[in-house]
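User: quick one
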Amino acid sequence: MDTLLQQLINGLTVGSLYALVALGYTMVYGVMKLINFAHGDLVAFSAYVGLTLFTQFYGSNALTLVNIIIVFTLTAIIVAFVGVLLERLAYRPLRTAPRLSAVVSALGASLVIQNGIMLIWGPNMEIFPANVFPSTSWNFGGVIISFTQLVILALSAVLMVALYLFINKTKMGTAIRATAIDQDAAKLMGINVNRVIMTIFIIGSMLGAIGGLFIGMYYRGLTFDMGWLYGLNAFIAAIIGGIGSIPGAMLGGLLLGLFNALISGYISTEWAETFTFILLIIILIVKPTGLFGENTAEKV
Amino acid sequence: MNRTTIIATLFLVVMAVFPFLVDSAWLSIGITFLVFAVVAFSQDIILGRAGVFNMGHAIFFGMGAYTTAILNVHYGFEIIQTIPFAILIPVVFSVLLAGPIIHLRGDYLLVATIGFNIIFEQVLSNDVFGLTGGPNGIFGIDFFRVFGYELTSDTAVYYIAFALLIVTLLIIRNLDTSRYGRALYYINKNEIAAKSMGINISYYKLFAFALGAAIAGAAGCVFAIQYSAVSPESFNFMQSVMFFAIVLVGGSASLPGIIIGTFVMFVLPELFTEFKESRYLIFGAAMVLTMILRPNGVWPATFGNIPKFLKKKAREAK
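Assistant: Done. Structure below.
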């Protein structure tokens, strides 16, 4: 029973990481109908930026709360800037092009970021500093929760609630929802679609950046090509929840995290990815629109 | 004789005499080029002609290579006896895997095929049933023997690959002028219209998958002979991404486009080894740039693949 609870806690932690990254996919897909293959690499990039910033701060003094906040903010800003640049250079010129051209452009951008990371930080594994957060952990009757896990769970929850409120309560949020439903109609209503898309990329990249920092803190080992792994998992999470749906991405992330933890805890770690993709394919066959997705009839 | 025929004939003649003009290093680059061009053409049947978003094509290539390797090394089959299996097994799997998901919308299909490719990779590197040899793969694949002759030289392998390319081109030529080719063309152009005209979409899409898998499997067999070894990383999903990109960067359903795509993705890296570190960065940037400048590929097919006699009929009708 204890191990089950422990697996659930670990699963929720990983799940909230997936959820943070999945939001970036689902928002871009919701509005642009494009799988942003480069998003996973942005997440990897943010882990590396965070690593460099943290080691910079370690040089002079111990890490304080202020420093941590500075690192998180700086990383989010840098990654958001790259995200906007990505949209400008690789996606905007292709908005009216055949759909597959945008997919290839996304794959190209993914290769650029991935190999950019390799050229800057080198091809070997980098290790994230261990004691960004105090190494305290609490033992609740056999179930151990570390300080890092607690921060990940708490901050992810806060960010997701904030995003939910932003999408549903603000003017920009309404514009985003309107653009997702019908881009041309939104344009006619006076919505600046370019600005909406830019906002999505900023928010998605920032959430991905925080997800990337957490991935660094939680797993510690960074490789330049790790973006695809987390990106694909997050994308599966988005599909489970119904791609385009924000609450769906959050729930899908948590469910996938739990599923992964239970599979690696009770069945096998070598075959974990296989089980994830079998789950994905079953979902695609049974209910391709996911848990929260809407059925849309194709227009003739 | 029009310009296209001249270029095509010239290309084939150059490829035919190529082994006599170059040293052994270039010869092996030539074999690689031929094998990957065949795989790219087979991917083009699925992606470019049927318009099915398949990002797991390395599975079928790998299945062909592994079938040859397993049958030869573990069961002592002659290479020539493994060929039918290297073609049939990918075909069976392509239908089994694609069957349940063929009706999915494009993007979902894309992700599902990536999923299959990653599962395939794990199957290979986890040494299933002790057959696939784990992460190191299988070594010591035999030479090609026919009528008692051992075709051991690189030149022989080159001509096997060249023959396969010719066969592939003939298959594509016949496909273009056949009922199947036209059905695929209409499905690709407008699926809903094709459906309402009574074309069985799933059937033709699966046919494209099976044909593509068969050709890729045969190419896998040649690949296994060339290196006399197979290992999982040659068939991972990044390889599939490459084949996907070759077809779209070169120009889907365009023969010269696919040749150019293969050349850029697989031959240029061999020539510029000093850029090894940054070559994927340059590729990525080139992919983005090509799509922006030429969204339909470098050398797109001018008429799609409408058979000539139909075009003639349409002109007469006018």
